[in-house]
Amino acid sequence: MSRVLFRSPNWLGDAVMATAVPPALRRRHETVGILTPAAIADVWRAAPDVDEVVTFSPGGEVDAYRSAGYDRVLLGPVSFGSAWRALRGGVRERFGFGGECRDWLLSRRLPARAYSRDRHQVENYRELAGLAGRPEDADAPRLVPLADWRQDVPAIWPDARRPRVALQPGATYGPAKRWPADRFAAVGRALHERGLDVAVLGGPGDRAEVEAVLASAPDALDLGGRTTVGQLAAVLESADLLVTNDTGPMHLAAAVGTPVLAVFGSTSPRWTRPFGEGHRVITHPVPCQPCFRRDCRIGYGCLRGVETERVVAEVLAVTEALA
Predict the structure, then answer these.
(1) Position 160 confidence tier, pLDDT thresholds 50, 70, 90
(2) CA neighbor of 191 nearest in space, from 254, 251, 253, 261
(3) Phi-psi group of 59: left, alpha or beta (phi > 0 → left; psi -120 to 50 → alpha; rest → beta)
(4) With bands split at pLDDT 50, 70 and 90, how would you rate the model's confidence at 4?
(5) What sections of 61-206 are H helices per DSSP?
(6) What confidence tier does 134 reach under pLDDT thresholds 50, 70, 90?
(7) Distance from C-alpha of 9 to C-alpha of 108, rounded to nearest angstrom
(8) Could you give the count of Cα atoms lying within 13 Å of 245 in the half-sphere of its Cβ?
(9) CA atoms within 13 A on the CB side of 16
(10) Which of 43, 138, 227, 302 could disulfide-link to 231, CB 3.0 to 4.6 Å?
(11) Residue 178 near residue 250 (C-beta atoms within 8 A)
């Protein structure tokens, strides 16, 4: 039996974009397994063309490789450590992007220059898939929430009114990716006044941003830190629109088929915009953009230049089209 393991990227958004890989592997291998951090395993449980999901907690990756027993791995992370741990875990063939001083650890590799921020990250993963699969068969990222997750949605976000708009004010990477919380709050208030149902999302690390929004938009529903990744996918599927920063739930929403309105600051829409049709990206161009920095020393002009009224107008254009 031909078996291949894909080592998932570590971040939620990257993992969602990497769900383009298993369909390409399926054409050459009977069994496609995923090795993933436990925190984002729900992404792979909802992904097509995956036969086995092997999880690990911090410090347990090498043991997970050994217990999984695969001889071939395609490495999603572009890091020395990911290749080194695969070797220590007994994986005979290791494929991935070169660079990061790890070329000698890889049995087959793409040149480091092939990993580019000048094209969409999905395209990087599609090319990576060609090392162990057929890149022409790679699909767009797509997730199908499990039935149990969908059944949880009415209790998490009761279907009180339509349209339903979710706000995602956090971004783990840093403040240079976060549109100001007071502007998210202003959007929430404006939408509630127009009869829309608004919920504020966020993981445990986003609690400060969620509370800042809720303090000024008290009619919004607080869903910050109240869902698993799988439940969040189902909640986003039930929404009519997500207003968000460039962060993991943005990609999760796009993968379950929900329209996205994304505000980009320090990062590049060319590289990590929501993938697919029907999404909107808002930027305020400044000479230093994209800088890819976590924070900004000169005032966050790329974010503060995006006005609340512009975002509200874009949201209403989407939601009125649904009526």
Answers:
(1) low
(2) 261
(3) left
(4) very high
(5) 61-68, 80-88, 121-129, 147-156, 181-193
(6) confident
(7) 18
(8) 29
(9) 26
(10) 227
(11) no
